[in-house]
Amino acid sequence: IESRLEDYHSRLTGLAAELDALRRYHRQTLQELPMGVCSLAKDQEILMWNKAMEELTGIAAQRVVGSRLNTLGDPWKELLQGFINLPDEHLHKQHLALDGQTRWLNL
Fold first, then answer.
1. Are 72 and 54 in contact (CB under 8 A)?
2. Name one Pfam family in it (predicted).
3. Based on the structure, what is the number of domains in the chain?
4. Where are the strands (E) in the chain, listed by range?
5. Which parts of the chain have pLDDT scores under 50?
6. 67 near 46, Cβ under 8 Å?
7. Is residue 21 in some structural domain?
8. Residue 7 has what pLDDT?
9. Domain hosting residue 5, numbered range
10. What is the pLDDT of residue 35?
11. Would 17 be classed as within a structural domain?
12. pLDDT at residue 45 in the model
């Protein structure tokens, strides 16, 4: 949907153009947050992977956006799939071994 909206951007007028501008503003805000943010569709397609998520994971957004969560390599696939399969909305102090270092993440 995002790519289709980008294609139609120059053709939008009135209320549709205002809503598109608001969508773009919110998307840019999420992209620039200093914390990792990713967004998934119900079928686990990765819809968004912000700059902080790129830095945290070492995975470029252009590589994962549009792909399914199960195509990510571990430890990220295991961590994120485990989180979405739980009823909890937040998980605190999740242990992650990465490059010989221990990281603690809140999801």
1. no
2. PAS
3. 1
4. 38-40, 46-49, 94-98, 101-105
5. none
6. yes
7. yes
8. 60
9. 1-32
10. 94
11. yes
12. 96
